[in-house]
Design brief:
It contains three helices and two strands; from the N terminus they run H-H-H-E-E. It has 79 residues and is mainly alpha-helical. The termini are far apart.
Length: 79
C-alpha cells in the first residue's frame, strides 16, 4: 500500500522538477537570452573544427594520485 504512495510521490517530484526546469531554462522565466556562441551555427562549426584538429599538442600522459593529488608522468617500461 505504501509503495504506490512512494512511486506517486517520486513521479510527482520528477514532474515538478521538469516543469520548473522548462520554465526557468527554456521559457526564460527570469529573463535573459541564449548567448551567441551557443546559438550561432557557424561559431559551433569553427569550434568543432578546432577541437577535432590533429595533431594535438600536449604534454606526456599523466596519472593522478587521488590521495596526495600529485600527478605522475607515465613512462613506458622500455625506457
Amino acid at each position: 500500500m505504501s509503495g504506490k504512495y512512494v512511486i506517486a510521490a517520486t513521479v510527482a517530484t520528477f514532474g515538478f522538477a521538469w516543469v520548473c526546469d522548462h520554465y526557468v531554462s527554456d521559457k526564460k522565466l527570469f529573463g535573459g537570452s541564449v548567448c551567441a556562441t551557443a546559438s550561432n551555427e557557424k561559431w559551433f562549426e569553427e569550434t568543432d573544427k578546432k577541437f577535432q584538429a590533429w595533431p594535438r599538442t600536449a604534454g606526456p600522459p599523466v596519472v593522478m594520485n587521488p590521495i596526495t593529488r600529485q600527478n605522475f608522468i607515465v613512462k613506458s617500461r622500455e625506457s
